[in-house]
Amino acid sequence: MGFLDFPFAAASDSVDARRFPRHQEVLRYIQAFARRFHLDGLVRLRTEVLAVTTKDDDEGSSWRVRWRRNAAAAGEQEEEEEEVFDAVVVCNGHYTEPRTAADDIPGLDAWPPGKQMHSHSYRVPGPFADQVVVIVGASNSGADISREIAGVAREVHMADRWAPAATCRRLPGYRNLWLRSMVERADADGTTVVFRDGSSVRADVVMHCTGYKYSFPFLLTAAGDGDTAVVSVDDNRIHPLYKHVFVPQLAPHLAFIGLPFKVIPFPMFQLQASWVAGALSGRIQLPSEEEMMEDVRALYSELEVMGWPVRYTHCMKHSQFEYDEWLAEQCQCGGEAGTRTVEEWRKDMFNATRKKKLQCPETYRDEWDDHHLLEQAYQDFNNYL
């Protein structure tokens, strides 16, 4: 998952040298990256962006950015300031605004907060001791949390959107963990959930492992007379975006980095950043606004034909490497057009790990048989160490 030119490998100051480390080691890596490329001085910590708006004047379009420094921790008075910039790149991530299934499951919206929660608030399994827990969602968070909670809970029922309606089976190695079809409805009294097969359980708590919403509350950009937003979020689709990055009407002066999900994040987002930087510097020429909009419409048509839900517009689990190579070609990252920069071992390792996780969900972190790929990786790492 490391950046292309800064290996994510165990170091002398590692706090968790395992192949699948905890978040503390990921933080150490990011901090080391910032030090290596002298980024610390370019980052304003404890600063909240309040508003981003366009500013039209005789010198052309620019951007007003109003922000507030959180000085409470330092015992200082909070202050608001406004600055003007030539361009804005939105990189606020998409793992802070929880998305729940309460709107999709009849009756669940009536359950009080104490009876339902989002995985965003989960920390440790202890509070679920001897409880019956229904996990809505069976992707990464749902699968990991279900197994962890099963160690203390009385029963754990993991509801999978993609499971056939008749699904109700106990997972191997567990006496109290079941895979179920999706929840069909919930009784308004806050006690019972009913699955698609008609069976039901009395639940102490429902946990939503249903992902997150894209949210840009600070982005107040509007077009024309202000009635039509230049950028909108519709069922987790940010519209319109050329190649998930540029807003055609305002390119290259408004861009987004880090929207795709179910991908290897750091290499992809590094390539996106290189593309944006090249476009802003004038080194890379973007297509016309109409050409970019045509590409957006073509993507939507393709997703519709595939039956892909709107909320999965930025899901790139099947196309990430093709997209990475396209970005690398646009950036000419290797020095000339067409040069590959995403190593084959990185792709092979991703695919092998994904397969291993499905086959051995309990042990894939500590048992692997792709030593030849690790050897290739470390050979490449030597170019940067």
From TrEMBL:
Pfam families: FMO-like. The keyword Oxidoreductase applies. It is an enzyme of class 1 (oxidoreductase). Keywords: FAD, Flavoprotein, Monooxygenase, NADP, Oxidoreductase. The keyword Flavoprotein applies. GO terms for molecular function: flavin adenine dinucleotide binding; monooxygenase activity; N,N-dimethylaniline monooxygenase activity; NADP binding. Its EC number is 1.-.-.-. Its cofactor is FAD. Belongs to the FMO family. This is Flavin-containing monooxygenase. It comes from Sorghum bicolor (Sorghum).
